[in-house]
Design a protein that fits this description.
The protein has an eight-stranded mixed beta sheet with strand order 5-6-8-7-9-12-10-11, with helices on both faces. A four-stranded antiparallel beta sheet has the order 2-3-1-4, covered by helices on one side. The radius of gyration is 21 Å and the shape is globular. It is α/β, with parallel strands linked by helices. α6 (about 180-190) crosses α12 and α9 (about 325-340) crosses α12 (about 390-414). The protein has helices at about 1-15, 30-40, 70-80, 90-105, 120-130, 180-190, 215-225, 280-290, 325-340, 350-355, 360-370, 390-414; strands at about 20-25, 50, 60-65, 80-85, 135-145, 150-155, 165-170, 205-210, 295-305, 310, 345-350, 375-380. It is built from twelve helices and twelve strands. Helices cover about 35% and strands about 15% of the residues. The structure holds arginine and zinc ion.
């Protein structure tokens, strides 16, 4: 009976559409504010952190249920923080965005400038492998918790040449739809753009390994109209808890759980899991890194939102790796390339100086797999997680220029 009751409760939770939730933005403007903003936490886990603040003049964006509005207002008053109610009834915004999708999607197949379903993505990469057999290889990595196939897309003009490898993954967080869209656009451009192959092009002398959707279960969960557009975690279950999911980007086995995590399986954002690599999805990414550690020179994990390009360490902001200048330098030239293409510049800093959070894939690549350049790239600014599909056409080509710069840099150094 207890379990039936729990099942019922989580059912309600799953159907939440954020009706009457308010998107609130807290503006720090002094060092004291900065401290209170980074320390903000909601023990009940009901308030969802949309974007952390990296300090003075960088906002904290949170999604607040009606019952928690007083708590947040009190917190802002006590700490002298400016509070902006950005969006009342956030549920309506999400509904507006998602209502447009399904009707069109029934007829549509894959398009690089759409938010595609997991199935359509699979069809797309299969099509690529069939059409360009000498260039594109699919490697089966295993299955997600709910049994979805995970396939690594390897793009190389000379797979036996022992080229340096650039590994890009995306979509470890379900709601961050722009990230897989970017990964697929990258596959698209690398396979159709003839200039990529000629001497000096993006494919000349580097191999690209792309895993476009690390968390397909969470992603599909955010697409279903009956569930939760703002879901971040995986969809696994552990132990006796009635709650679902682990934060895939807190689950890696390097300095696991030392900072910025929750130990509560019901925490909607940052539950680190019962142990490192408890999730099949993070195990598969780890295996790609470890199996190719010698040749892997760059790792980029795609997320949204906020237009950040951050490098290790992520678990601490107290110090930087001794090679930080090289990491910083490459990130700045990537940001410049995106800016030259008409895009916004990235905020470049170490992940831990933004906000410390342990168990991320970027730290694991850098600290455990020995990948010399490792980044988390937070795509897009504005519109939070509901980045409009119509704008993909504008921003994805801009970001692609950044990837060309990454390719050129790796080629030049290795
Ligand atoms: N938004 C990302 C997350 O919270 C940032 C991760 C940066 N890397 C890190 N190791 N903290 O997962
Ligand atoms: Zn993310």
């Amino acid at each position: 009976l207890v379990f039936v009751a729990f099942g019922f409760i989580s059912q309600i939770d799953c159907n939440s559409h954020y009706d009457n939730y308010t998107l609130i933005r807290l503006h720090p403007s002094t060092v004291d504010h900065q401290k209170s903003v980074t320390e903000f936490s909601d023990p009940s886990g009901e308030i969802e952190i949309m974007k952390e603040s990296r300090g003075v003049n960088d906002t904290l964006d949170i999604l607040v249920p009606p019952g928690k509005m007083k708590f947040v207002h009190d917190y802002a008053n006590t700490n002298g923080l400016k509070l902006e109610e950005k969006q009342p009834n956030y549920g309506r915004t999400l509904q507006d965005v998602s209502e447009r999708l399904p009707r069109r999607r029934i007829l549509d197949r894959f398009s690089v400038f759409h938010y595609n379903s997991y199935d359509n993505m699979q069809e797309f990469i299969e099509g690529k492998a069939q059409r360009y057999p000498a260039l594109v290889q699919l490697q089966e990595l295993g299955k997600s918790y709910q049994g979805r196939k995970m396939r690594l897309v390897k793009i190389s003009t000379r797979p036996n040449a022992k080229n340096p490898i650039i590994f890009v993954d995306a979509g470890v967080h379900g709601r961050e739809w722009v990230a897989p869209a970017m990964a697929l656009y990258l596959i698209h451009r690398l396979t159709v753009d003839p200039t990529a192959f000629v001497k000096g092009g993006e494919l000349d002398g580097v191999d690209w390994y792309i895993l476009p959707l690390v968390n397909p279960d969470g992603y599909e969960y955010t697409r279903s109209s009956r569930s939760n557009r703002m879901w971040r975690k995986t969809r696994s279950k552990h132990g006796a808890s009635h709650c679902y999911g682990v934060d895939g980007n807190r689950n890696y086995g390097f300095k696991w759980a030392v900072s910025g995590v929750s130990n509560d399986p019901c925490h909607k954002e940052t539950y680190a899991g019962p142990k490192p690599f408890s999730e099949p999805e993070t195990q598969m990414v780890r295996n790609v890194m470890m199996d190719n550690a010698k040749r892997m020179k760059l790792y980029v994990s795609l997320h949204s939102y906020g237009q950040y390009l951050v490098y290790p360490w992520g678990y601490t902001g107290d110090f930087l790796p001794k090679q930080w200048k090289k990491l910083d330098d490459m990130a700045r030239s990537v940001s410049n390339a995106v800016e030259r293409a008409g895009g916004r510049p990235f905020k470049v800093l170490s992940a831990g100086k933004w906000y410390p959070a342990a168990g991320g894939s970027d730290d694991y690549a850098f600290g455990a797999a020995g990948v010399p350049y490792s980044y988390t790239m937070e795509l897009t600014e504005g519109h939070e997680f509901a980045f409009p599909e119509e704008l993909l056409e504008t921003v994805l080509p801009q970001f692609y220029e950044g990837f060309k710069e990454f390719g050129a840099r790796i080629k030049a150094e290795f």
